[in-house]
Write a structure and sequence with these properties.
Elements: H1 3-33, H2 37-63
Length: 65
């Protein structure tokens, strides 16, 4: 697999994970507004885990060079 294809796949994965994290944070905000704090906190933690996965993916990619 060429380097260009690998870079393209990494970018697509990061963008998809960013979209998922945004949706999770929007959902957690909705739960906070409805006074369902436990669900809101759970979704916030899940969103942070997704963002940490994004950061890890970016750092692993930068270390491969």
């Amino acid at each position: 697999m060429s380097v260009g294809v690998f870079i393209f796949l990494r970018i697509i994965i990061v963008l998809v994970l960013l979209a998922i994290a945004g949706l999770v944070f929007a959902l957690s905000r909705k739960f906070f507004k409805e006074s369902r704090k436990g669900a809101g906190i759970g979704f916030s933690i899940f969103g942070l885990l997704i963002i940490s996965l994004i950061v890890q993916t970016i750092f692993n990619f930068s270390l491969m060079k």
